[in-house]
Each structure stands twice: as C-alpha cells, then as structure tokens.
C-alpha cells in the first residue's frame, strides 16, 4: 500500500471518488476500503446516513468477512492442516484438498461464493463495487436478492459448523503449532459496540486490552486514533510499523483481526457464535485472552458463524428493503476519519479536504500493517523453534512452509495488494554467531 503511493496520488481527487480509488488497494478486501472511505465521507459531510443504508453497509461487510475468511481457511490454510506441513508443495493447495476431501473442499468453495454473492447482489459486482458513498449507499436491496441470500444461509451455516468441528478435532494434534506460531504477549486492538462492548465490524468505539485481559483504552472515539497509534518506518520494509503510542516502539506491539476482535469484545451477541466463543475461550485461552496467533484460524471460523447469524438478523429487519438509503450533504468539515473492521483487522482512513471537497492529505493505516511487528515476531519465533539442527547444511522444505504458515495465520493482503504472481519468493539463511552462512534454502 505504501509502496504504490496511494496516500500521495489521491491528493487532488474529489472525496466522492475516494471509495472507488482506495478499493483498488486490495482485491480481497476492497469492501473494507469502500466502507471506511464512505464513512470518512459521512464525517466530512457531517451527515447521519439512513438506518437502512447502515444495515446494508453492514450486510456487505459481513458478506466480505464470509468470503475472505472462507478463502483464508479453506483455500489457503486447510491444505497445511489436512495434507501436512511437510507434504509435497506441488499438491499442498486447494487442488490437493479437493483430491483428499472433496466434500469439505466443495463446501468451502461454496461458502466463499455465498459471501461474494451477498456483495454482488448489493453492489452490482463482486470485486470493486462503487456502491457505498458518502451519505449512504447507491442502491437498496432488491426483493429477489433478499430471498436468494435468505435461502442460501442454512447451507452456509452448516459449512461453518463443519469447519469448526474439523478444527476442534485437530487441536490436540497441533499443540506444537499452537505453542510456536506466534504465541507471545501483546496488546490487542479492535472496535466494540458502544453499548455492551459486543463484537463489532463496522462502527463502534476502539478498545485496547493486554494479554491479561486488562482494558487499557475503552470507549475511544475512532476519530482520535492518532492519540494511541503511531507509525514507524523501518529501513528494511516498505510496510510501516504501527504501534501503541503510550508504550513506545516496539514495546507497543499490538495485534488486530479475528484474534484481537474476539479478545476485546465481551461477547458476540448471537446465540451460535456466542456458544462457539465460550468454547473457544475455554479451549485455547484458559477461559480468557487467547495469545497464540495460530488461533487466528479458529477465531476466523467463529467469526464466520457470527457473520452468517448477523446477516440473518439483518434480513429480518422490517426496513431492510427500504429505498431511503442516501443522505444529501455538502462539505461541512475539512477533515474526516472513517474506521471499520476489515476481515484482517482495524482499518483507518483519514482525509483532509479543501472547501470544494478535493483531497489535500490522506493517511491510511491498513489492517495488515497493524500486524506488521507481530508478523515479524512470529517469523522469528518459528525460525528459532524449528531451526535447531542444520548439520549437513540442509534446511527442510517444511521449514519454509512453516514460516509461510506463520504469516498465513494473519491472512495478510500481501499477495494480492503487491500483485505477487505464482509462488512467494523466500530465502531462509542460518548464520553462526560470527555471521557465517551455515545453511541456506531459497525458493524463487
Ligand atoms: Ni486486503
Ligand atoms: Mg499511513
């Protein structure tokens, strides 16, 4: 995101174009940028959007959570779980999964498709619908679309149950991953609802908790994000390293996304997901905060259930088919902030505009960036645990995959937002205390 210069080349554009432009930051989570941008626009126009527009924006975000989480779990991560970390890389993918467990693979592919359908039925297309705009949304929900989503919900919920049961069965066999794939103390940041601190994905207030469950910041208006979050530029990365300001850098490491959202909320607010959340906290958090990044996978599945239940609730709202979905307004403030939860974590858009609504300055903190310090810590932990003996100078392929697997826990946007094609190039080097290379393994 930083490398491609979005914060710079948006300068001079009309604020109404920002949702469409920033959506191009990512092909997996464009909806997050569209929503955060539209919310920033609401702030600049100083309008309250119609209640139905908010419900529809929420529904689209929940559709995106479903499709993005399904992609992460079924297509990208379950091959490691079901085929093994050391299995042949040529088959360790969704096609290998189809060969091994066609029923699960098919269910996962259909679940992702369901999430994409919700987006498409609302926005008119799957990937970059310029549908949410400052003041609301462009189009209401049609009766046919409403029926289609409602009809497909039970199957989607059944798939969420299937995946949750599969993951829980695996827990005993993945103790080593649970202990070493990013298990450390950190802060957790996310949005919670204004009342009751329920699980939140679109609006609400910021909360910060530590690994003991102490609440460090509560009820913070997201517009004040820069009071608690700073960004550092490291010479070795294009990606900035955001940190929690009161603790300084890098001690102020925090995590966002599914793991953090389940750590900051009191409960989810829907019955099936709340039952899963209670079991999750009991199983992997000793009743409290979950600190292993390996459990991002488990948290993601709980969130799929939460998203599907909330979509069902929204469909039953009496005004969900209302055609009053957009408020009018003009430039009433020269600065606006819009914050929402993307599938992979909290997303911040912050614009300064001139009297005509042309952008003067942009700050974006994208979800993946928030996890930068923690992702690096995870790579280090995995390397230190698994590289214990390199006699013969051989680093096994499975090590490369575990390092990647550590990154996959966070489900970063990297591959699509940097337009990587094919395999991720990677090099693992083992050095002795004097800096001599003892072993090296490279994948181009
Ligand atoms: Ni993304
Ligand atoms: Mg920034």
Written description of the protein model:
The chain has 2 domains: 310 residues, Cytochrome-c3 Hydrogenase, chain B (Orthogonal Bundle); 70 residues, no CATH class. It is built from 15 helices and 13 strands. The strands form 5 sheets. The protein has a 4-stranded mixed β-sheet with strand order 5-4-3-8. The protein has a 3-stranded antiparallel β-sheet with strand order 9-10-11. Helix 4 packs antiparallel against helix 11 and helix 5 packs across helix 6. The protein is globular and about 70 Å long. The protein starts with 5 loop residues before the first helix and ends with a strand. The structure holds nickel (II) ion and magnesium ion.
Brief rundown of the structure:
This protein is α+β, with helices and mostly antiparallel strands. It has 15 helices and 13 strands. The protein has a four-stranded mixed sheet with strand order 5-4-3-8.
The shape, in one word, is globular
- Kindly provide the name of the CATH class of the largest domain: Mainly Alpha
How much helicity do the residues have? Answer: 40-55%
What gyration radius follows from the Cα positions, in whole Å?
21 Å
Structural class: alpha+beta
